[in-house]
Every structure is written in C-alpha cells, then in structure tokens.
C-alpha cells in the first residue's frame, strides 16, 4: 500500500549494508564504502542509459574490445565510470572488466583489500532499441594486500564474498548478496536512493519458463537438445513451458530469479565454452542464484567450483530453479 511506502524508516542500500556489517564486529566499514561507490556508478549509468537516445550516447565507438565485439559508446562510458568509482573508493586493489584486456592494479596509495570483477554494461546489443541492459559485479578479498597477484583473481566463484547486478529497465533495480541471502533495491529517482523493495528473494523451486537463444539449436549437444525438446513437448503430458529470451543476461536472470524457470547459454559446436564470461557474468549470477535457493551448472559441474585460468575465459551455464537445473544435470549424467 502507498502509505506503507511513506514509512519513515526507509531501508536504503547503505543502511542495509551497514546492518549486515554489524554482524561482522571486525569490519571497519570498508565493504560499506566499496558498495557505496558501486552504487554511485550504477546511479550514473542509470541516468546515462535513460537519456542515451537524447544525449547521442547510442551507437558504436568504431573500436572493438578484447572480446572481438564492436564497442558501444555506453560500453566505454560505463567502464570508465565504474573504474573511476572503484579506484576512488580506496578499497580495491585489482579490477577486472570485460572491456579491459588486462587486470588493473590499483596504485598503492589508493589500494584496499577488495578485488572487483565486473561487466560494466551487459546486453550491449539491446542499447540502441531501448531494451533492458545492466551491470554485473563480483567481489573477492585479496590474500595479501601488499602484493596483489593474478592468483587472487583466478579463484573459484565459491570464494566470492559478494555479488550483484543492476538492471536498467522500466525501473532501476540493484540485486545484491553478501553471503546471507539476496536482496533487491529499487532506485527512487526523487531521492536518488536505492530502497529495499525485494527483501530475501528466493527463486521458485520449479518454473514454467525456459530461456535460451533458439537460433543456436542446430549447434546444441544432445543433452541440451533433449532438455529443450522436453520443455516444448513434455513427455509427462504436462503443458509446455513458455520461452522468454531478452538477450541481456541481467534481464533474463532477473526474470528467472523472480518468476522461476531456467536460463541457458549452452556450449555448442561453434563455441565449445559457450559465450558468457566466467569471472564477471557466470560467477556473480551463479553466486546470487545459489543464495536464492537455485542452482548453476556448467553441463559438467557446479559453476562456482570452476577455477578460471584466464580472466576472460567463457563457460556454458544452466542456471535457475532447483528442480529445472536438476533435470538438465540428469540429462548430462551429472549427479
Ligand atoms: P555483453 O553485452 O556484456 O557483451 O553481454 C552480452 C551477453 C549477455 O548479456 C546475453 O545473455 C548474451 O550475450 C546474449 O547472447 P546472444 O545474442 O548470442 O544470444
Ligand atoms: Mn560485450
Ligand atoms: Mn555481459
Ligand atoms: Mn558487457
């Protein structure tokens, strides 16, 4: 009800993270400061996305990134915004971005103990047509702050201390987990604050939606083809599932988290490791999904158990409702 919204005890993301911090007596507020700087980046990108069409921020830069993708103006702008926000927080020591070939080592005078891996703008192909896009991030703590190394980054997703995404859609929502559940915050533009609107998100145990790019069907392996076939023509005579595919991982995952179902970017003959990048797309989303009671599976193993060898390495992913992922695990012969 609207009057409840005008409660005076607005739970902003900062207050929420401070509450979480109070559970860690040794915490010195560094994490809260880091999150505040990530939030600042999200607010900036949200405003840039909302006026992209007006501010000539759509379209290509004419350059390509390390992924071999044509960089959009918003890819570059978002990347610069997050790099600057993260460095200026004084709480990071290594940054890994989809848009930077090498990891960024923060200058010693501004170093902190956190490592942030991020996709500054996810779903770039949807920018120019106004479809939801987002930002994805994951946070590790460095082993030795005095000499951060690449080994600090090439670790299982399981060792992340936090992960989240911001979706720039009909509303701007930030979804975050710091290891004890998942919470969703909606930006109130009149306050410039992210307000807790979705406390303790849990994904439905089973869903009625499958999400995959059917255009790749000719390249799928047997288990994927069989799973999708069963979504469309259920062997047990139940009603077929609905297909929903937006093409922005953040939007497809956000819908899956709230409504249930499964999102897949499988391996295929063309790309044996699928398309999505392990460190800053698959790991953060897998961390969130498990915190919300779901599963994340690569076709061979639990996604969070993978150890990246390279910072831009890709991995197939089947992620979503517990029971839905269980089905694909059985088809892949993994128990
Ligand atoms: P990004 O825009 O950060 O490069 O990521 C795009 C990804 C992801 O957002 C989405 O799930 C996937 O690309 C869609 O790929 P297809 O267009 O091949 O389906
Ligand atoms: Mn990209
Ligand atoms: Mn992406
Ligand atoms: Mn991106």
From TrEMBL:
<dbReference type="InterPro" id="IPR028343">
    <property type="entry name" value="FBPtase"/>
</dbReference>
<protein>
    <recommendedName>
        <fullName>Fructose-1,6-bisphosphatase, cytosolic</fullName>
        <ecNumber>3.1.3.11</ecNumber>
    </recommendedName>
</protein>
<feature type="domain" description="Fructose-1-6-bisphosphatase class 1 C-terminal">
    <location>
        <begin position="203"/>
        <end position="331"/>
    </location>
</feature>
<keyword id="KW-0963">Cytoplasm</keyword>
<dbReference type="GO" id="GO:0015979">
    <property type="term" value="P:photosynthesis"/>
</dbReference>
<feature type="domain" description="Fructose-1-6-bisphosphatase class I N-terminal">
    <location>
        <begin position="11"/>
        <end position="199"/>
    </location>
</feature>
<dbReference type="InterPro" id="IPR033391">
    <property type="entry name" value="FBPase_N"/>
</dbReference>
<dbReference type="GO" id="GO:0042132">
    <property type="term" value="F:fructose 1,6-bisphosphate 1-phosphatase activity"/>
</dbReference>
<dbReference type="GO" id="GO:0005829">
    <property type="term" value="C:cytosol"/>
</dbReference>
<dbReference type="InterPro" id="IPR020548">
    <property type="entry name" value="Fructose_bisphosphatase_AS"/>
</dbReference>
<dbReference type="Pfam" id="PF00316">
    <property type="entry name" value="FBPase"/>
</dbReference>
<keyword id="KW-0119">Carbohydrate metabolism</keyword>
<dbReference type="GO" id="GO:0005986">
    <property type="term" value="P:sucrose biosynthetic process"/>
</dbReference>
<dbReference type="InterPro" id="IPR044015">
    <property type="entry name" value="FBPase_C_dom"/>
</dbReference>
<dbReference type="Pfam" id="PF18913">
    <property type="entry name" value="FBPase_C"/>
</dbReference>
<comment type="similarity">
    <text>Belongs to the FBPase class 1 family.</text>
</comment>
<keyword id="KW-0378">Hydrolase</keyword>
<dbReference type="InterPro" id="IPR000146">
    <property type="entry name" value="FBPase_class-1"/>
</dbReference>
<dbReference type="GO" id="GO:0030388">
    <property type="term" value="P:fructose 1,6-bisphosphate metabolic process"/>
</dbReference>
<dbReference type="GO" id="GO:0046872">
    <property type="term" value="F:metal ion binding"/>
</dbReference>
<dbReference type="GO" id="GO:0006094">
    <property type="term" value="P:gluconeogenesis"/>
</dbReference>
<dbReference type="GO" id="GO:0006000">
    <property type="term" value="P:fructose metabolic process"/>
</dbReference>
<keyword id="KW-0460">Magnesium</keyword>
<dbReference type="GO" id="GO:0006002">
    <property type="term" value="P:fructose 6-phosphate metabolic process"/>
</dbReference>
<keyword id="KW-0479">Metal-binding</keyword>
């Amino acid at each position: 009800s609207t009057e409840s919204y005008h409660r005076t005890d607005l739970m902003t993301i900062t207050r929420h993270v401070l509450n979480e911090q109070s559970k860690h007596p040794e915490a010195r507020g560094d994490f809260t400061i880091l999150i505040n700087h990530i939030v600042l980046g999200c607010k900036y990108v949200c405003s840039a996305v909302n006026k992209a069409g007006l501010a000539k921020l759509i379209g290509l830069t004419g350059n390509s990134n390390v992924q071999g993708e044509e960089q959009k103006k918003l890819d570059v702008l978002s990347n610069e915004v997050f790099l600057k926000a993260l460095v200026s927080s004084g709480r990071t020591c290594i940054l890994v971005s989809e848009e930077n070939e090498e990891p960024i080592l923060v200058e010693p005078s501004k170093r902190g103990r956190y490592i942030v891996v991020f996709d500054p703008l996810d779903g770039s192909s949807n920018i120019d047509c106004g479809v939801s896009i987002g930002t994805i991030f994951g946070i590790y703590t460095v082993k030795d702050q005095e000499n951060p190394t690449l080994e600090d980054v090439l670790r299982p997703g399981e060792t992340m201390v936090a992960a989240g995404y911001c979706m720039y859609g009909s509303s701007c929502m930030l979804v975050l987990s710091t290891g004890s559940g998942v919470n969703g915050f909606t930006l109130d533009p009149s306050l410039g604050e992210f307000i807790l609107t979705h406390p303790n998100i849990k994904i439905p145990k089973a869903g009625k939606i499958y999400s995959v790019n059917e255009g790749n069907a000719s390249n799928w392996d047997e288990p994927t083809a069989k799973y999708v076939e069963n979504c469309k023509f259920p062997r047990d005579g139940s009603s077929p599932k609905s297909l929903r595919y937006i093409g922005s991982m953040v939007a497809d995952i956000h819908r899956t988290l709230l409504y249930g179902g499964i999102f897949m970017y499988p391996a295929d003959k063309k790309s044996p490791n699928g398309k999505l990048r392990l460190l800053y797309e698959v790991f953060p989303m897998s961390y969130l999904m498990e915190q919300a009671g779901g599963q994340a599976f690569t076709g061979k193993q639990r996604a969070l158990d993978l150890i990246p060898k390279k910072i831009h390495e890709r991995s197939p992913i089947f992620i979503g409702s517990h029971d839905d992922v269980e089905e694909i695990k059985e088809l892949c012969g993994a128990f």
